[in-house]
Design goal:
heterodimer, A: mainly alpha, 7 helices, about 55% helix, globular, B: alpha/beta, two-stranded antiparallel ribbon, 9 helices
């Protein structure tokens, strides 16, 4: 889940692709990219990485409150979702404040982000 | 031996560049006061006449990732490119480039390893806004070589606060033992209370103004004992989910030393964070 957020956030084309087609991007990423070791050639890919069902569904529906509850790293999620959706809000910080409001039902302790 | 010209600890707000370079009609209402305070802060470094900057910061998931995450890493390169696509995108930061100081990097690594810190290193490090923000605020001409030191305040499991303080104390001794006639400023950036990607983010103040008040007191008085008696990895969740960045301030308190009162202290309240600026002159304030 964090690897998806990380690898999409750093790639301008993937940011737009995920904004426009979240389910398709998540499906493609899980089959083509999830196992890629980032500092290695393709032949050295991992063999065992896949999403949990709840993670896949949260990513496929842009459900950032659910991602927070699942323990996705909040900085990664925030950064990527600002890149995708801040543009749709006229007011400065409009998206960021909506983001906080949609997480308002969470209280301490938050989900553990240890990996 | 090298002399420590100044020890500086600061927050690293990525929007300062945008706020300070926007045309007056587009600048936020707090920009003028913020710029005034930064310019006074900058003067504390300028007066120290440094030759080299040792910069303590933290990579925000740019080059360092969960497949290979160091707890403490020293840059060991002749040059550093800086700032990343998502920092241009979100903060409007420019791409930057800095010279390194290989000799000081090598000295920090060798002596740090011998002092019991298993420091990672990188010969090709692209640095991010935790280092470039203080360059922009404190040394905008970007004319001095740097040695970056990254800490993990971001991807748990993290080292404990005590370890940050120990490393800060060691860095002080290591720099003072560098066989060089250069003047070194040690500059580190972190956070006070901060929430990012959580329900308390972007409120009218920082998420925990009381923590911020106490933190400024600890830092400005050099009260390491008081700070360490209250701050733990668990306790830092309460003031905000990104408050573990305060451990970089604790590292800088270690550099400054137990009981070292800061020579310059300033703060500015922004809408979602308190910014804080501290300078120590371990060898006396420059004329």
């Amino acid at each position: 889940m964090n690897k998806f957020l990380f690898t999409v956030d750093r790639d301008p084309e993937l940011v737009e692709r995920y904004r426009e087609d979240p389910r398709g991007t998540v499906h493609w990423w899980e089959s083509e990219r999830a196992n890629q070791l980032l500092s290695c050639i393709e032949q050295e890919a991992s063999t065992w990485l896949r999403f949990e069902d709840a993670e896949r569904e949260a990513l496929a529906t842009h459900d950032y409150p659910a991602l927070f509850g699942l323990g996705a790293h909040p900085f990664l999620t925030l950064t990527l979702f600002i890149a995708m959706f801040e543009r749709d809000h006229a007011e400065p910080m409009g998206f960021q404040l909506e983001y906080a409001a949609r997480l308002a039902h969470y209280s301490l302790p938050y989900a553990d982000i240890s990996t | 031996m090298a002399e420590i010209a100044a020890v500086i600890a600061s927050t690293h707000h990525p929007f300062y560049y945008k706020a300070s370079t926007a045309p007056p009609e587009e600048a936020p209402p707090f920009a003028a006061e913020w710029v005034r305070k930064i310019e006074a802060f900058r003067e504390t470094l300028t007066r120290a006449e440094p030759d080299v900057l040792l910069m303590v910061g933290s990579d925000h998931f740019h080059q360092l990732w969960l497949d290979n995450m160091p707890q403490f890493l020293v840059g060991h390169a002749e040059q550093y490119d800086a700032n990343w696509y998502n920092e241009e995108r979100e903060f409007g930061l420019p791409r930057m480039h800095m010279r390194g100081d290989l000799d000081l990097s090598g000295h920090v690594l060798r002596e740090g390893l011998d002092a019991g810190f298993d420091l990672a290193f990188s010969n090709e490090l692209r640095i991010d806004h935790s280092v470039t923000c203080p360059i922009i605020t404190l040394r905008p001409q970007n004319d001095l070589p740097i040695v970056p030191l990254y800490t993990n305040i971001f991807a748990p499991p993290l080292p404990r606060p005590q370890r940050f303080v120990q490393l800060g104390k060691a860095i002080r001794e290591i720099v003072e033992s560098w066989p060089s006639d250069k003047r070194v400023a040690i500059i580190g950036t972190g956070h006070l209370s901060l929430e990012l990607g959580g329900p308390r983010q972007f409120g009218p103040t920082g998420p925990d103004p009381e923590f911020d008040r106490r933190a400024v007191e600890w830092i400005s008085q050099g009260d390491l004992e008081g700070c360490l008696s209250e701050v733990t990895l668990d306790s830092l969740h309460a003031p905000g989910n990104a408050t573990h960045g305060f451990m970089d301030f604790m590292l800088m308190m270690g550099v400054a030393g137990e009981g070292a009162r800061a020579d310059h202290v300033d703060t500015v309240d922004l809408f979602h964070t308190m910014e804080a600026y501290f300078t120590w002159y371990p060898n006396g304030a420059p004329a």
